[in-house]
Amino acid sequence: MGIETRKQLHVISTGIQSVEELVKISKSIYPYIDMLHLREKQWSGKEMAVAIDRLLAAGVPLTKLCVNDRADIAFMKRVRGVQLGHQSADISLVKSAFPSLQIGASVHSLEEAQQAMENGADYLLYGNIYATSSKPGKTGVGVASLEKMVRSIPVPTIAIGGVTPDRVGEVMRTGARGVAILSGIFLSKDPLDSARSYYKEVHMEVR
């Protein structure tokens, strides 16, 4: 199940907001996003399943939901995909056990990206591109590194880390398929307005 060829806006949950906040914000922004990643490391499997039910009840389509790490929950709740990181089960194992899931791989180098592609990842989340408060003290890899990744690895790449609306154009010119946003939307004073701003920039013709 390959990721679409169209441009993508992914949004990642913060891990610090309540389920109520998550559902409220997601209900308002989902028309403007392509994927909502539930990255909630403190949640149990039961809590994740309940949150998915609440998001679905609020109108968020299962086709726009991605669960971090927990491929079993993603599969059982029939969401679109699972995002795997270095601590997750091997991509090839997850792909063989849950072939219906779209698999994203979080990578930080060309070597990791190459391995993820060979193991069957459908797309890559690569960064952090710029310095970001979610990775204090870690400098960004920069757009030149992103462009090298895009040219070297034929799997769609989504850029993450410090991407503000005014940086989206620079990111998209590298050939990246899209951007992934965390605090820029979920912790914004006006998440809906922020989501619209990012959506507009992502879908603008590359200039």
From TrEMBL:
Source species, domain of life: Bacteria
Biological process annotations from GO: thiamine biosynthetic process
Pfam family, one: TMP-TENI
Record-linked CDD domains: TMP_TenI (cd00564)
GO molecular function terms listed in the Swiss-Prot or TrEMBL record: thiamine-phosphate diphosphorylase activity
Domain Thiamine phosphate synthase/TenI span(s) in chain numbering: 24-185
Pathway: Cofactor biosynthesis; thiamine diphosphate biosynthesis
Keyword terms, alphabetized: Thiamine biosynthesis
GO (cellular component) term, any one: cytoplasm
Classification via InterPro entries: Aldolase_TIM, ThiamineP_synth_sf, ThiamineP_synth_TenI
Xref: PANTHER family: THIAMINE-PHOSPHATE PYROPHOSPHORYLASE, THIAZOLE TAUTOMERASE
Protein name, entry field: Thiazole tautomerase (Transcriptional regulator TenI)
Origin organism lineage: Bacteria, Bacillati, Bacillota, Bacilli, Bacillales
